[in-house]
Queue: 4 jobs
Job 1
Amino acid sequence: MNPVLELSGLSKAFGGLQVTRGVDLRVEQGERHLLIGPNGAGKTTLFNLIAGDFRSDSGRISLLGRDVTRLPTASRAQHGLARTYQIVTLFGKDTLLHNVMLALLGKSPRRWRHWGSLSDERTMTARAHAVLEAVGLGHKAALPLQQTSYGEKRRLEIAMALAQEPQVLLLDEPLAGLSAEERDTIRQLLGQIDRKITIIMIEHDMEVALAFADRITLLHYGEVILGGTREQVVNDPRTREIYLGH
Ligand SMILES: Nc1ncnc2c1ncn2[C@@H]1O[C@H](COP(=O)(O)OP(=O)(O)OP(=O)(O)O)[C@@H](O)[C@H]1O
C-alpha cells in the first residue's frame, strides 16, 4: 500500500540546535499514529514541518504521493492536510458558527472572493451547523466563543479541522489541560472520526493515546528511536527507559 504521508531524512535546526534529525516516517491510509517522546523531543516541530509552518533544512515530505516539501501551508491544506494546535487559536469574539464557517472558507476557493450566492451561504451555514452537531456543540452555535469552556474550545478546534474534510489530520495534544470528563468527551469524539481520515497525534495522556493508536513512533532529541505497532513500541525497553519511565 502507498503511504498517505512519507517523511524521508527530514532535518531541521534552529541556530545551533538540531531539533529534527534525519526523520523517516511512513503513515498508511486510515492509520492512527501516535508520536511520543519526552518534552523537547521535537514532536511539535515535526508537525510544523509536515504542515509547512517551518521549512525543513533537508529531506522530503510526500503527502498522498505528492512532493509537498517546498509547498506553503495553505497548499498543503488544499492537498488534504489539516491540523490543530497545542494552543487554542480561534477568534474569541466571534460565534462558534462563524469560527467553523471560517474554517470551511479556508478550504474553499471562494475564500478570496465575496460571498457567493445566497444558496452558497445557506449550504455553508448548514454544513457548519452539521460540524458543530457532530462534536456536540450544535446548541452553542450562536454563542461567542469566549463564553465557552476551554474543553469546548478544544472540541471546536477539532471540529474546524474536520470541517476542512482532510485526508490527513494532525492533532497536537488534544487532551492537554482538560478535566477527566472533558478528556472522556474528546476520547469518544476521536473514536468517531471516519477511518478514511488518517490521524497522527501527539499526546501525553497515555491511557487515551495508547487505546487510540495502531502504530507508535518514539522520538528523542529529534531522532526516531523506534517505530512499530502499539504492542512493539510499548513492550520495547527503550520506550520505558526514554519515555514511560520518566
Ligand atoms: N521556533 C523555534 N525556535 C527555536 N527553538 C525552537 C523553536 N521551536 C522549537 N524549538 C526548540 O526545539 C526543541 C523541540 O521542541 P518541540 O516543541 O518540537 O518539542 P516537543 O517534543 O513537541 O515537546 P513538548 O512535549 O514539550 O511539547 C526544543 O528544544 C525547543 O526549545
Job 2
Amino acid sequence: MQSDVPGARVASPLERIRPFVRRYSFRLVGGLVALLIVDLLQLGIPRLVKRAVDLLSQGAASQTALAQSAFAIFALAVGIASCRFVWRYLILGFSRMVERDLRDDFFRHLLTLDRPFFQKKPVGAIMALATNDLAAVQLAGGMGVVACADAAIMGIAALACMAYISPQLTLIAVIPMPLLAVLTRVLSARLHRRFLKVQEQFSHLTEFARNTITNIRLLKAYTQEAPQAEVFGRLGRQYQQDNLRLARVHGTLFPISGLVGNTSLLLVIFFGGRLVVGSVITVGDFVAFISYLYLLTWPMMAVGWVANLFQRGLTSLGRLDEVMNAKPTLVDPPQPLAFPAGQTEITLRTLHFQYEGQEQPALAEVSCTIRAGEIVGLVGRSGSGKSTLCHLLARQYPVADGAIFLNGVDVNRLSLGSVRERVAYVPQDVLLFSDTVAANIGFGNPAASQEQIEGAAKICRIHEEILGFSEGYQTRIGERGVKLSGGQRQRIALARAILLDRPMLIIDDSLSAVDLETEQEIISGLADFLPGRTCLIVSHRIAPLRDAIRIMVLEEGRLLAQGNHAELLASSDFYRTMYHQQQMQSHREEELPL
Ligand SMILES: Nc1ncnc2c1ncn2[C@@H]1O[C@H](COP(=O)(O)OP(=O)(O)OP(=O)(O)O)[C@@H](O)[C@H]1O
C-alpha cells in the first residue's frame, strides 16, 4: 500500500505515519482498550490484598473469606493474562503493519528517484535506512506506544487509588517525581543527537561492508584483506563507542527513575507507618498503598524507556524523511504530448550538458540527426562524452529544452515513460542479476519465449556458448555474473536489450571485452535485426564500426567530425590518427610471441 502521494513533502516526520495510524486505528484502539482493561484489573489486586490483610490483622479471617480473596485474585490474573495477549497481538501487529507500509512507500519512492540521487546517496546508507531505521520506527510504534499508554493509564490510576486511601500520603509520595520530568526533558535532546550519530555510523558500516563484499575479487587481487579488515574494525569500534555513549544517556535515565521510585517508597514507609500507628489508615491500607506505589514505579521507569524509544523512532523517521522528501530530477511535463508516430529519428540541436560540480561541460554544442534505420557509430577518446550522450538519450539526466528531439518533438515535452519504453539501452557497466542465463536475457520481457531468447542470444553470438554451460539457458550465473567471462557477460547484456525489440538501440561500448572479430560479427549481424530501428553504437575500437552508415567523432564533448569510414579517413586528421594507432596496436598484439 502507499500514501496518496508517494514521497510527498510533509511538515514533520510524524505526519509521515499519520495515514497509517488512521488506516489501522481499529487495531490501535482495540489494543489500547485491552491494555486499559489489564491496568484496571491489576489495580484490583491490591484492593483484594488489603481486604485479606485487614481481615487477618483484625483476627476476623475465615477460611471461606481467604479462599474467596485467593480465587478473586486468580480470576483477575486470568483476565490480565488474556487481555495482555489481546493487546500484544493488536498493538504489535499494528506496529508491524505501519512498518510494512512505510517500507513499501520507501521502496516505491526509491524507484521514482533517478541517477543524480543515487550518485549522492550510497547504497549502504539506503540499506541502513531500510533496516535499522525502520526497525527503530517499528519499536517506537509498538512497544513505545504500549509503554507510553500503559505508563499514563497505570500512573494516573495508581495515583487515584493512592489518593483514595490517603491524599496526604500521596502528596508526600510524589515529591521526588518532578525531578524525573526535568531529567527526561534535559536528556531527550542528548538522546536524539547520540542516536542520530549511532544510525549514521551504522550507515557507514553497512556501506563499507557492501562495498567490500561487492568488490571482493579486486580486494583479493590486491591483497587488501588486512587493511580492509582494519578499517572495518575501526568503523565497528566507532559504532560500538557511539552506542556506549547512547547507552550512558538512557542508562542514566533508567536507574534514576528507579531511584525516584525507591525514594517515594522510603517516604511512604516513614510517613505512612506513622499514619498506621496513629490509626489514620489501616494496615491493609498501608499494604495496598505500597502495592500501588509499586505499580507506579513501572510508569516512572517507563518514562525513561519511552523517551528513549520515541526519540529513536523520531530520529529514524527524520532520516527516512530525507529520502522520502528527495525529488526526482527528471519529471514528466504537466501535459505530455503523445509520442509522435512513425520510425524514430533523433535530432540533437546544440546539445550542452554539464554534470553537477564539474567545471567543464561533458557535451558542448553537439548537433546532428540520426535517422530511423541508421546504424551510427560513436567514437572518441576516453572522457570525450560518449557515455554522457547515451545517458541523455536514455533519459537518465535532465536536458535543457530544445536540445534533444525525437521525430521533431522536444523530449522535455514527452513523458519519461514514453521515451524510456522506446529505448533499449546497454550501459557500459554490465549489470546482471544473480539468476539464470534465461532470466537475465528475458529480464525486460518476461513473456518472451525460449525461442525468442535464443534468437537474441544468436544475434549476440553467445547461443553456442550458453548451450555448452552445465544447464544451458537454466545455468545460474552467480552474483552479478561471476561465473561468466567479461565478454560473455557483455553479450548476455546485449541480448537482453535486443530482446526488448524497441525502436531505439543504444549500445555504450558494451562489447569492449569481446574479441575484435566477434564484435565485428555481432555488429554486422545487428544490421539484419535493425531495419526500421535507430541505432547508436559507441565503441572505443574503430574497426568494428567501419561498416556503420555513419561514424561520429567526439572530442572533449564536441562533435569533431562525422561521415562514413572512408570519408573520415580522408577528411579528419584526428580520426585517421586514431584509426592508424589502433591498427598498429592490433598488429603489434598479433605479432607478440605466444
Ligand atoms: N556522473 C558524473 N559526474 C560527474 N562527472 C562525470 C560523470 N560521468 C562522467 N563525468 C565526466 O564527464 C566527462 C565525459 O565522460 P563520459 O563518461 O561521457 O566519457 P566517455 O567518452 O564515455 O569515456 P570512456 O570512453 O572512458 O567511457 C568526463 O570528463 C567525466 O569525468
Job 3
Amino acid sequence: MWLDSTDKLDASQPLSLTSLYSSLQLSDADIVFYPSLFNEQYSDRLLAKLTQTIDWRQDWITVYGRSLPQPRLTAWVGDPGKAYTYSGITMQPSGWTETLIDLKATVDAIAGVAFNSVLLNLYRDGNDSMGWHSDDEPELGQNPVIGSLSLGGTRQFMLRHKYQKALKAKLALTSGSFLLMQGTTQHYWQHQVPKTKRAVSPRLNLTFRVMC
Ligand SMILES: O=C(O)CCC(=O)C(=O)O
Ligand SMILES: [Fe+2]
C-alpha cells in the first residue's frame, strides 16, 4: 500500500519541512503524506494560537429531516469573494490572520500551488467527526488540490474507493502532519474522520483549497 520514501530529502526546502514523506500507493489517487511537517512544540503553539484567534462557528445540518448540530466547529477563511457552499451551508470567508498567512506560505511551497482559502475544523473530542465525502465541489476545479494540516489529538483518516469497494486505506493524522490530495483523488475516493470512543485531545484540521 505504501511506497516508503521516508528517507528522501528535498534540498530545495529546509530540512524540517519536507524531509519526510510517503506517497500512498492507491489506484486513481495522488496522495502524499508528510508525517511531521511541524514538530510537536510548534504544532502545540499553532493549535493554541488558532484555537483562540479563530472565530469558530457551530453550524446546523439537516439529516433525514431533523436539524442537528454539525459534529465539529468550523471556520472558513479565504480571499474576498470566495464563499463556500456545502451540505446546504454557505460560508462567507473571514480574512486571513497573520498565523494563517504564514501557514499558507509554507503549504503553498510544498504543494506548488497558491491556495486561496482554508476550511478549519475543530474536533473537540471523539464525538466530533466528519462523514464520508469527496472534496469535489465544482468551485474546486477539475482536479482539486487539497492540503490538509492536522494539529492536536491524533485521529484516523479513512479512505475508500467509490467504485471498487475492496479498495480502502486508513492513516493516523498525527499533530504536525500534512496530507496532500491532488490529481484524480477526489473523483475516485471518499474520505472520513470517524467518531472514536477512545479519549482524544481536541484536534484542529485545516484543509487549504484553491477555489476557482
Ligand atoms: O479533518 C480532516 O482530516 C478531514 C477534513 C476534511 O475532509 C475536509 O475538510 O474536507
Ligand atoms: Fe474532505
Job 4
Amino acid sequence: MNDIERLVDELKRLNAAYRNGEPLVSDAEYDEKVEALRAMNPAHPYLGAVEPETFNGKGKVRHPVPMLSTEKAYKIEDLERFVNRVDKAALEIGLSSVNYQVMAKLDGLAGRDDGTEFATRGNGFEGYEISSALAKGVIPVGGRGKGLGEIVMSLSYFEENLKDHFEHPRNMVVGIITSDVLNEHAQKALEDKAVRFVPYSELNKWTGSGPEMIASMDAIREEVLGGIDYPVDGLVAEVTDEALRTHMGATSHHHRWQIAIKTRGESAVTTVESVTWQVGRTGKVTPVMEVSPVKVSGATIRRVTAHNLERLRSESVGPGAEIEIIRSGEVIPKLEKVLTPSEEVSIPETCPVCDAPLEEDDKFLLCVNPMCSAKAEQRIVHWFKTLGSADWFGKKTVQKLVEKGYDTLEKIYKLKAVEFQALGFGPVQSENLYNALGISRTEPVEDWRFLAAFGVRSLGKSEARNLLSVFPLTELIEKTGDEILAADIRGFKGAKCENIGTGLAVVRETIRHMLDLGFQLEVTPLASEVAESASDSPLSGKGVVFTGKMVRGSREEMQEMARKLGAVVQSSVSGKTDFLVCGANVGAKKVEKAREKGVEVIDEDRFYELVS
Ligand SMILES: NC(=O)c1ccc[n+]([C@@H]2O[C@H](COP(=O)([O-])OP(=O)(O)OC[C@H]3O[C@@H](n4cnc5c(N)ncnc54)[C@H](O)[C@@H]3O)[C@@H](O)[C@H]2O)c1
Ligand SMILES: [Zn+2]
C-alpha cells in the first residue's frame, strides 16, 4: 500500500466512526489529514464526494437535489479567492454586484424536512428516513417542511447536564437518531426539548458585499454566533442571488456558490486553579484542570481536560500554572501550551472514586480495581468471561452496550432481541445475545463461579469456593469483612476480608437481583455437613452429573442429597465424573459417550438406593 492509499484508508475509518457518533480523533486532526491528502493528490476521489454515513436498520430515501458538503476556507486568503471566483461568474451573467449571507455552521447531523419526509444526508444522493426522530421528541424549530437544516442539541443544556458523561453533543445527537432504545440521558434531553432540528433558513444571518465580508469577518462572527446556543464549527458564507447560484452550480462535493469558513479555533490564556481527577470507564484516570473562568469563542470556560499525564508532569501543570487553551469547534477546550509552569504538581496515588491504589501505564494512571463503580464495562466483561459466555458478550459488544447506557447487569438482562437490534446489533447477533442471556441463566453453574463473576476484589474463584464451603451464598453476601475475619477461615486475613466485605456491600443488590432471575446454581456443600455424614457414603468425593427429567423428585433435591453425602455435583460429564444419573428421555448417544469415559450410568432408583 502506498502513502496515499494508507491515508485514504485511515480517513475512511475515521469518517465511519465519526458519522456513527464515536469519533476517534478531533475534527481539527481529521481536517489536517484531509488537507494532507489534498496536498498529495488534489484530484483524489475521496475529496470529490460527500463523506458518507451508514446507519443500519433505517429505510433509505432519495434526495430530489443532492445534499452536499462544503468547500472550506481556513485562511482569509481562501475566502478572497472564493470572492474572486464568484465575481468572475457574476460578470459572465452580467450581474454587477454580488450579495452574500453569512450564518453559523451548525455542528450536528444534517437533515432535510420536506414536511412529510425527514431524512439524513446519507451519501448525499440517498439518505435515511428518520421521521421516528420527531416522534421521539426532536423539536422541528419553526415547524415542519423548512428544507435543509441540522439536528443539534442545545449547548447550554449539554454543558449543564451531560458534559461529564459525553464528549460532544453531536455524538449524542447521532445516538438519539440512530438507536431506538434510548439511554436515560438521551430520554431526558428529549423530554427537556433540548434536541432540535434547526432549518438553516431559521438562522440569524449577516448580509453584505464580498469586500465588506472580508473586511469585517470578526464582527460578523460576533454577530451571527453571539446569541447561538448550539455547537458550531465555523461559519457558512453563500451567494444569495438565485440566478448566480444556478449559473455557478456544484461539483460532486460542494456548491460552488457556498463556502465554510473554518478557524483554527480561538485561544485564550488562563490560570489553573486546581486539578481534579476523573475515572473513565476503562479505569483511566485523567486530570481535569479547573481554570479561572475565561471566554473563548463565546463560551465561558471553567474546565480543561489534560489527557496526558506525562505532559502534566514534564511541563509542570498544577495550581498556579499559566496556560493557553484552544477551542476549535469542539465544545471542550484543549490545553495548547504551558506558559508558566506551576510550583507544585501532585499526582494521586489512589483512585478518586474507590480509593484503590492506582497503577501507572506509560501515559496514564489506571484504577485496576474491578469493583470501582467507574468501571462498569470491565465489570460486565468479567461477568460474562467468568460465567463462560464471553463468546457472545465480548469486549466490543459490552463496550457498545455500556456506551448506550446499558451499564449494569440488571439492565442488560432485561434486553430482548428486538432491543439489541435497536441498539445497532445485527438481527442474528441480537438473537444470539438474547439467547446467550437465557442460557447463562438456565445452564447449571457452580455457585462459586457465579459469585466470583461479580469481580469483587480479593474474591476470585478459589476464595469463593472456600467461603461457600463455610457460608451458604445468601448468608455470605450479608457478611461484613469483620464477620468473615471472625470465622477464622484458613487464608482469610485482614486486608482480604476487608476487601471482600466492602466489595460485597457494593454488589449485594446486584447479586440478589441475579438470584431472583433464577440462575441454576450448583450449591457448594458446606464443609460441616459433608464432614458429618459423608465419610462412609458411596458418593463421598465422587463426581456426579444429573441429566434428563427426574420423576421421583426434583433434580435440585437430588443434587442437594448428593452434596450432603459428599458428592461433587457437576454440570456436565467430564474426565472427573463418576456417576451419570439419568432421568427420563436421555438420549442414547449421551449415555454412550459417558460410558466411553468410564462413567457409571445409573437411573433414579439406583441413585436412591445408593443414598438410602
Ligand atoms: N473527527 C473526525 O474524526 C471527523 C471525521 C470526519 C469528518 N469530520 C468533520 O466533519 C466535517 C466534514 O464533514 P461534512 O462534509 O459533513 O461537513 P462540512 O464541514 O463539509 O459541511 C457541510 C455540512 O455543513 C452542514 N451545515 C451546518 N450549518 C450549515 C449552514 N448554515 N448552511 C449549510 N450547511 C450547513 C451541513 O450538514 C452540510 O452537509 C469536518 O468539519 C470534519 O472535521 C470529523
Ligand atoms: Zn477506582
